[in-house]
Amino acid sequence: MLNKLTSYFNTETSAAPLAVFRIGFGIMMLASIIRFWSYGWIEKLYIEPKFHFSYYGFEWIKPVGNYTYFIFIICGLSALFVALGFKYRLAIITFFLSFTYIELMDKTTYLNHYYFISVLSLLLCFLPANAYFSLDAIRRKKQYTQIPKWTIDSIKLLLGLVYVYAGLAKINSDWLLKAMPLKIWLPSKYDLPFIGDSILQQEWFHIAMSWSGMLYDLSIPFLLLYKRTRIFAFVLVVFFHIFTRVLFPIGMFPYVMIVGTLIFFDAKVHERILNIFRKLFQFFNLKAVKLKASSYSFSNQKIILPILALFFAIQLLLPFRYVLYPNELFWTEEGYRFSWRVMLMEKAGYTEFKVVDAEAGHSFSVNNSGFLTTFQEKQMSTQPDFILEYAQFLEHHFKSQGHQNIEIYVDSYVALNGRSSQRYIDPKVDLLKQNESFKPKNWILPFKDEIKGL
Amino acid sequence: MFKKALFLMAIISVVAACSSSDEGSGNNNDDFDRTALLTNLSNNIIVPVYQDLNTKLADLVTQKNVFIAEPNQVNLEAFRTSWYNAYKVWQSAEMINIGRAAEINYVFQMNIYPTNVSDIQNNIQSQNYDLAHVNNNDAVGFPALDYMLYGLAENDADLLGFYTTNSEAPKYLAYTSDLTDQMNALTQDVTSSWSSYAQTFINNSNNTATGSINKLVNDFIYYYEKGLRANKIGIPAGNFSATPLPDRVEAHYRSDVSKALTTEAVTAVKDFFNGNSYNGSASGESLASYLDYLNTIKNGEDLSTLINNQFDTAQSKIDILDSNYILQINTDNTKMTEAYDALQMAVVLLKVDMLQALNISVDYVDADGD
């Protein structure tokens, strides 16, 4: 066993797939940053709001006014450098840090996709993605055509993990039996050509989509691993992601996944892709540089492997942390994020805060739009940690206005996956007496229904 | 073994995708006609409301001209009656903030209250004003006329003095006249825009942030929550302040019609929700019938029924209020806050349950989703 393991970690393979992955990743990320900027989202999401929702423990990470643009510039440039394989190690570490900083600035914008990018770029910090077909190779006049096989496998493992966990999360009664929330989402796409006013309105189609989505997620990594089903699987990947792109506003993610899954293909395919790039460079009339070829070996593999083992152990365990919480996961969202739970819920909420001055004996409601953007208010209304953080912000705000000895209560209603709305937070609990922590939040009222499943 | 399992999974997924097509229960087979919804709202509610409002404002201008020519008690009464009639119709128009109305900030130029007395006085004194300017939003429209017709003095004799014996009477007459003409001009502009805009509005039935249904539903909910619930009841009752603010009621200077205006507004909201024609008793496709189509049964009852019941509950809480909200707040504010709470419950149903069922995003949340 140990021998097998040792020999596995000494096995080498072509560096081409990792080089293609690096280029694809860098270009995609650069495009994402440009797209994000061009839509005015930096301004809208990070500069305009008066208040930002922080992750527990990361309250010190905030947008920095107009300098926030500077962080995006750094992030975009580092993505470009990653694509070029120029000063790769520095570039990918800078990318990981700047991208993660951006994501931590305000949890309103949390998306599993963004978390995936952070996690993937952290993994890439440890991999020799500049070994081959990179500016670094030209600079050091040496390229490594062979790299340890585990480096490529680690990316496959991460991709597989994301798919499988997303599939496992779909094994629940709302998704499979009630076809929720697809039953809400699909009929509202009535304006799509051909399918909008026909099959998207059909219940059988919602159920079929739910089941095939679950089976797709669970099986696709294996279909990609296995050579005989690989092409079929890739066609599925392209079809599935394009289809979801048409149906839902999911930005760049489908393209990132399509390009990402290319890593499952043989080195031959990747060499062909690299040849296309080579021809492009010929077009620019660049002189071919002859490089010495050798195979890459880690000088510090003994340190890196345990770090990555820990990394994957965390990735495997983190999504299951929800079992430590007593209440319905979808309702309280304790342990919901960072778990590849994608598109599982349609949640709508309404939350009104009441500031009570117990001594003076009067109270007033807060106009949320005075402090939050519509996007923030929407996210806040359905997530307890947002509600608590906002209550604490209101405390700070009203105390600075001279209201001392205040208590804050909340009148909140949430509807989940087509159920009727029900009261969400205990209206008798003074939120200012509560603290954020990883402990269960006993001031969330129990869910009046049951969702069975993983 | 492993390979076989993979093949099996692939086959199952294909079979599952195909075979479940036989299990169709038959619901949702026919598509809801959103064009009919928009046509009904446009032809039977929005356009007739604007036309009626336009007529009422034309009458307001007529009465104003009579009053300006001869500012006496009789003409003042006629002017006031015309103002009140127009203000009642306005309650059906405020929720429609779409098309030309949105372009010219119609709502903000017609009914921002409390009106700003010092802005009005400055305008009168300077005689140099752009009534359409955003800074004058609280010095124009129905609330400004409320002040000019009821608020200038404690009694009618003194009030008429401002238009007759006062050394600056011409300035007061001019401002009142300009105010009224401006309201009329804006209303004419908006009303006439619908002769061509109606078709654009009806055709734009797709589910995007700029689609007619999305915009209309967002306007409707925004109006219900802010324009109706908060402005008419919540703010004066002190729901948003440490103490009640009776001077914030609608038609503050006239003071005895606040309840009547609220009632008009609740009726208009209900009619809009149910697609009831503004003229006559016919009804057509509406948000209510759309919800029925989406078959969102809640607690054994239809969501549309729940919403209608809540509107009725709110109206019954409003019915027991004094016609003068200032008196009501000063004697028994609890009844005001109870009315507010009843209106509030419908906000939850509209904003949470209805929006979820219609899958319309609140306003334009423009960002990627998962």
UniProtKB/TrEMBL annotation, chain A:
It is found in: Endomembrane system. It holds the Pfam family HTTM. This is HTTM domain-containing protein. Keywords: Disulfide bond, Lyase, Membrane, Transmembrane, Transmembrane helix. The keyword 4Fe-4S does not apply. The chain crosses the membrane at residues 20-42, 69-102, 114-133, 154-171, 204-225, 232-265, 303-324. Coiled coil: none annotated. Its main location: membrane. It is a multi-pass membrane protein. Residues 10-269 form the HTTM-like domain.
Automatic annotation (TrEMBL), chain B:
InterPro entries: Imelysin-like, Imelysin-like_IPPA, Imelysin_sf. PROSITE patterns: PROKAR_LIPOPROTEIN. It is found in: Cell envelope. Keywords: Signal. Residues 1-16 form the signal peptide. Pfam families: Peptidase_M75 (PF09375). The keyword Signal applies. Residues 46-344 form the Imelysin-like domain. This is Imelysin family protein. It comes from Winogradskyella bathintestinalis. The lineage of its organism: Bacteria, Pseudomonadati, Bacteroidota, Flavobacteriia, Flavobacteriales.
